[in-house]
Design brief:
Layout lengths: L3 E2 L32 E4 L4 E8 L19 E9 L1 E9 L1 H5 L6 H26 L19 E2 L5 E2 L2 E2 L5 H14 L12 E6 L4 H9 L7 E2 L6 E2 L5 H4 L7 E3 L9 E5 L6 E16 L6 E13 L5 E4 L3
Parallel strand pairs: 1-5, 2-14, 8-16, 9-12
Antiparallel strand pairs: 3-4, 5-15, 6-7, 9-13, 10-11, 13-16, 14-15
Length: about 325
């Protein structure tokens, strides 16, 4: 069903004496996804990313014996199909002619762009909002944040924990990333934290955890029984989150938090197939109504799970 904006819907704008219009525009949380997604251009209807399985460990060669020969292979494939997102409105010819204060098309055009931007933010955030959902698996067949990511060597690795955000939880997460993250052949890889991502509910907690000079926790020496309340904040002192933290206003689980790692640029990907296009040129020849539409084509996906460590909370 086509929604048509007629003079009846803007009757007060057709009368003299109106001083101002409210609700035309608000400040927006624009472009938040750009802080955690790596944007790539696409020229196809879909994109696939292939996990490469490298060589394993070397082996001792006995005198006169053969050198161990190994081979690389293909791992899992992550695939995303681009969607076309669209929205529009119709203005009657009379509504445009009789508007005394400003072009109704200009007002709705701004609202249209705002709605399209909000839609994009919500679709991007769905990647993290579904990060713990086994029904929304990534290329390796499990959730983005899972306790059992399968490796080529038959073992599994976890990139998740069930804990509310705290200094201890972050330290444990950083330790897990450094000690357990391996490639698909089980070889150690160097991975560190890049950015902490939290919901609006944990905004102040994250600020205190990463910006305080002193530790936010107390430590009691088991031998002397002395409680030290003046320990340094090792998260800040060590620069363990070089890009700090961001408040992601589109997270639906308010006690979830994520560590974005420096693994590589193929963790969270935004594929831009076609940029936003707003078309205001079509006039219905039978009614004289003006049709305005906006469309954009893109997709968001998770590739290499090693780029994210997440918690859905305790």
């Amino acid at each position: 069903m086509t929604a048509v904006v007629s003079r009846a819907q803007i009757v007060k704008r057709l009368k003299p004496g109106l001083a101002a219009l409210m609700g035309k525009e608000y400040a927006r949380y624009a472009g938040q996804y750009q802080q955690i997604f790596n944007t790539k251009k696409s020229e196809k209807s879909y994109e696939e990313m292939l996990m490469t399985v490298g060589l394993g460990l070397g082996a001792v060669k006995n005198e006169g014996g053969e050198i161990l020969l190994d081979a690389v292979s293909d791992g899992f494939t992550a695939r995303t199909v681009h969607s076309t997102i669209g929205l529009g409105f119709v203005l009657t010819e009379e509504a445009i002619e009789d508007n005394l204060y400003e072009s109704k098309a200009d007002v709705l055009g701004g609202a249209l762009a705002r709605s399209m931007a909000e839609t994009k933010e919500m679709l991007a955030a769905s990647v993290l909002n579904n990060a713990f959902d086994s029904g929304t698996p990534i290329g390796d067949g499990v959730a983005l944040c899972s306790a059992s990511h399968p490796l080529n060597n038959g073992s599994t690795v976890s990139n998740t924990v069930a804990a509310d955000i705290s200094e201890t939880a972050l330290k444990n997460a950083l330790t897990a990333i450094r000690t357990t993250f391996v490639d698909d052949r089980g070889l150690k890889i160097k991975v560190g934290a890049r950015k902490l991502v939290v919901s609006a509910t944990d905004a102040f907690t994250a600020y205190e955890l990463l910006k305080s000079d002193l530790s936010t926790s107390t430590v009691t020496n088991s031998t002397t029984g002395v409680t030290n309340t003046n320990n340094i904040n090792s998260l800040r002192a060590g620069g363990l989150f070089p890009e700090g933290h961001m408040v992601y206003d589109y997270l639906t689980d308010q006690d979830s938090w994520f560590i974005m790692t420096d693994c590589e640029d193929n963790a969270l990907i935004h594929w831009q197939r076609r940029p936003l296009k707003i078309d205001m040129d079509y006039r219905d020849p039978y009614t004289g109504n003006i049709v305005t539409t906006a469309t954009e084509r893109y997709s968001f996906m998770a590739g290499n799970w090693r780029g994210v460590y997440g918690s859905s909370g305790a």
